[in-house]
Write a structure and sequence with these properties.
The protein has 765 residues and is of the alpha+beta class. The protein has 5 domains: 98 residues, Penicillin-binding protein 1b fold, CATH 3.30.2060; 188 residues, Biosynthetic peptidoglycan transglycosylase-like (Penicillin binding protein transpeptidase fold); 225 residues, 3-Layer(aba) Sandwich (Beta-lactamase), CATH 3.40.710.10; 99 residues, Beta-lactamase (3-Layer(aba) Sandwich), CATH 3.40.710; 59 residues, no CATH class. Helix content is 38%, strand content 18%. Strand 27 and strand 28 form a beta hairpin. Helix 2 packs across helix 15 and helix 5 crosses helix 7. The longest helix is centred in the N-terminal third of the chain and has 35 residues. The radius of gyration is 35 Å and the shape is elongated. The termini are far apart.
Length: 765
């Protein structure tokens, strides 16, 4: 009988053992798959462009200092001694630069001194070598992370990078017998049981580092017997499959060590920067003990939450290190006397959110979402954070100013408030330096730069004029007299925005004064279908109809497409693609995708110069001449725009190096009761004066194919010396230079010229 029972028992044991072996094999496969593939889900990082500094450059010191803070440079009262420190005086900034590692630049940090003469860089000196630096590159700014669902950030480190005292600190805090057990430590379990029994509460745990890793990687937080058995089995299997150093390395890169806003700090590498502003290899013994002490309760013991509590926990870890023989009594006494000095951190709000949304759409065409969320890509963008900050501030300030000047513009509902939008681009590259798609991203994520369709009004007129340059010149005479047009059986009688007695005007005057009647006259002469063709060539996506109102910007358009079209003039006739993305590299720094800019020549450099010259007149003598009263005296071209019933106010202004578009309006089309020159232009001026590092004071260079001639201001024909009372210089395409001299003044002699001059003088008064 007992033999039969024994057989049953042995059979059951064999069956159980077989099940355990099979289950263990299954767990081994799961562990191997988890550890042999990517061990962590690493979010992709999005960076701004590199900032270039050079002697002679004008900069906005306030914006520059704000950028240095966002780059996490820490102000110190002495000359910087380590990377990430800076010292500011009245005339200089001393910085110990961070390392830079990008696809285009790999550089160790070094100390520099930047000296200023008011808001201009006077010199840049590398202080360790006493050498002048012609160009200094500051690291790109991290804008955002493409997170997975856990919103973690970490910097992976190898165990070979870790100082011994850091490893000892972690072992002292969590598992002193780590290198002497096989994944489960019976002594630690018994010790914890005894301690908890004595105190009548849970005071100590008996889990080893391997068990903690098992819980974090493979198990749910529920506390059940089956989960605990799973934990023990997986821990034993991990110990059998991997070396102690490998297990410890995975653990140190995995552990949760605190919170930065809504983002969790994971791994010892990220914690070193978060708490002490340095790489893990530079952590001191007391800093290592501080971080090791956090493992038990990161937010409870954080130096940012309670320094006294953090200090007490750190000292416990140091004492444990001494008990295990890892630091001497003398070292212990010295370390216990030192304070806890965290580096500090600043929580910045979400940066450039509309730009990031636009970037995301470009990226989604290149990478699946899971790649962005988990493969640790470095995404380098075109964003200039100083320009972005200036644009955000200028828009907010300008909208508040408008609301204060007219109470009818105020709305209590944030979703119905007065809105605005700004885009800043480099015309020759298409790089987007800044994008503000609305007043408040938290209230409305609708990007008015990339998604809105608004009537451009007079902003569209330059595309009528550029179409005309094959047969007209800036000196051609246009009719500015009232006319009626029939559209779909209805009579349309356009008017000029302001009353004028000029019934005939030169083409340049018509554009700089933004005369509606003269523009329509020009459009009808060259043909509306040709204007539609031009708009198509400039890549406006709006379907346009050949109606006379087309010339006045009656059809809705997307602001970024308008900005891109104006870039053609600034870029000598070449149109580029609006770029938010420069390059993408993998975690090893290898470029895996580069977004090359697309360029297309639409007009000759000569035609572009003529357009720039006429749009410069808008600024010097026309609807945008108020810019000179706002401290803007360098050469630039621009155009104001105002739509019917003041629903939209616009201004586009540009130099050869930078272009900015500003729109102001209500989403529902309510009037803003102001023109483009009154509502949008002041915002543009605030933006441009705040970013001197982007502004070139050089004008537009005259290319070959352009001829300058003296013309009669009245007839627009070549001026006759000593006969035409007012002559001025004008530019022409070489193939379109006027050949006839002024017919109006050919008949006048000396007496008639004198009499006519007196009459003109009297008429002025």
């Amino acid at each position: 009988m007992w033999i039969r029972s024994l057989k049953w028992i042995i059979g059951i044991l064999i069956f159980v053992l077989g099940c355990l072996i099979l289950y263990g094999g299954y767990l081994s496969i799961q562990i191997e798959n988890r550890f042999s593939s990517r061990r962590w889900s690493i979010p992709s990082k999005v960076f701004s462009d590199i900032t270039l500094l050079y002697p002679g450059q004008f900069i906005n010191l306030n914006l520059f200092n704000e950028m240095l803070q966002r780059l996490e440079y820490q102000e110190v009262p002495h000359q910087p001694k380590r990377k990430g420190e800076l010292h500011t005086s009245k005339t200089s900034i001393d910085i110990f630069l961070h390392d830079i590692k990008t696809p285009s630049l790999n550089r160790e940090g070094f100390p520099v001194q930047i000296r200023f003469n008011q808001n201009q860089i006077e010199s840049i000196i590398r202080t360790d070598k006493k050498e002048s630096i012609p160009i200094l590159e500051l690291e790109p700014e991290e804008i955002v992370l493409f997170f997975g669902p856990e919103r973690e950030r970490r910097q992976l480190v190898s165990i070979d990078q870790l100082p011994k005292h850091l490893i000892f600190a972690v072992l002292a805090a969590e598992d002193a017998r780590f290198y002497r057990h096989y994944g489960v430590d019976p002594f630690a379990i018994l010790r914890a049981f005894y301690t908890n029994l004595i105190h009548g509460a849970i005071r100590q745990g008996g889990s080893t580092i391997t068990q903690q890793l098992t819980k974090n990687y493979f198990l749910t937080p529920e506390k059940t017997i089956s989960r605990k058995l799973n934990e023990l089995m997986i821990a034993l299997i991990i110990e059998a499959m991997y070396t102690k150093d490998t297990i410890l390395e995975i653990y140190l890169n995995e552990i949760y060590l605190g919170q930065k806003g809504s983002v969790s700090i994971n791994g010892i590498g990220e914690a070193a920067y978060f708490y002490f502003g340095k790489p893990v290899s530079e952590l001191s013994t007391v800093e290592s003990a501080t971080i090791a002490g956090l493992i038990r309760g990161p937010n409870h013991y954080s130096p940012y939450a309670d320094k006294t509590r953090c200090l007490k926990r750190r000292n416990q870890v140091l004492s444990a290190m001494h008990r295990n023989g890892w630091i001497s009594a003398e070292e212990l006494q010295l370390d216990l006397s030192l304070p806890v000095n965290p580096a500090g951190f600043t929580l910045h709000g979400r940066k450039a959110p509309y730009f990031i949304d636009y970037l995301t759409k470009q990226l989604e065409n290149l990478y699946p979402a899971e790649t962005l969320y988990s493969q640790g890509l470095s995404i380098y963008t075109t964003l200039d954070t100083q320009v972005q900050t200036a644009a955000e501030k200028a828009l907010e300030k300008g909208l508040i100013r408008l609301e204060k000047s007219n109470s009818a513009l105020k709305r209590e509902d944030p979703l119905k408030q007065l809105q605005g939008a700004i885009i800043v681009m480099q015309p020759k590259t298409g790089d987007i330096l800044a994008m503000v798609g609305g007043r408040n991203y938290n209230e409305s994520q609708f990007n008015r730069i990339a998604q809105a369709r608004r009537q451009p009004g007079s902003l569209f007129k330059p595309f009528v004029y550029v179409t005309a340059l094959d047969q007209f010149t800036p000196a051609s005479i246009l009719s500015n007299a009232p006319q009626s047009y029939e559209i779909n059986g209805k009579l349309w009688q356009p008017q000029n925005f302001e009353i004028t007695t000029e019934e005939h005007v030169r083409l340049r005057t018509a554009l700089k004064k933004s005369y509606n009647l003269a523009t329509i006259d020009l459009a009808m002469q060259i043909g509306l279908n040709r204007i539609v063709k031009t708009a198509t060539e400039y890549h406006f996506s709006t379907p346009l109809q050949p109606y006379p109102s087309l010339a006045l910007g009656a059809f809705e358009m997307i602001p970024i497409e308008i900005a891109r079209a104006y870039c053609v003039f600034a870029a000598d006739g070449v149109q580029t693609y609006p770029l938010s993305l420069k390059s993408v590299s993998d975690e090893n720094g290898k470029i895996i995708q580069r977004k090359h800019m697309k360029i297309e020549r639409l007009i000759s450099p000569a035609k572009a110069f003529l357009m720039n010259s006429m749009l410069e007149s808008v600024v010097t003598e026309g609807t945008a001449q108020s810019l000179k009263n706002r401290g803007i005296a360098w050469p630039l071209a621009g155009k104001t725009g105002t739509t019917n019933n003041y629903r939209d106010a616009w201004f586009v202004g540009y130099t050869p190096d930078i272009l900015a578009l500003v729109w102001v309006g209500f989403d529902n089309g309510d009037p803003v009761f102001a023109t483009g020159s009154a509502a949008a232009l002041p915002i543009w001026a605030d933006l441009i004066t705040a970013i001197p590092h982007c502004i070139s004071k050089d004008g537009f260079n005259m290319p070959t194919g352009v001829v300058k001639k003296s013309i009669c201001a009245e007839s627009g024909e070549l001026a006759i010396k000593n006969r035409c009372p007012t002559s001025l210089d004008e530019f022409f395409l070489a193939e379109n230079v006027p050949m006839t001299y002024c017919k109006v003044h050919q008949k006048y002699g000396v007496v008639n010229r004198f009499t006519r001059g007196i009459k003109n003088f009297i008429n002025k008064f």
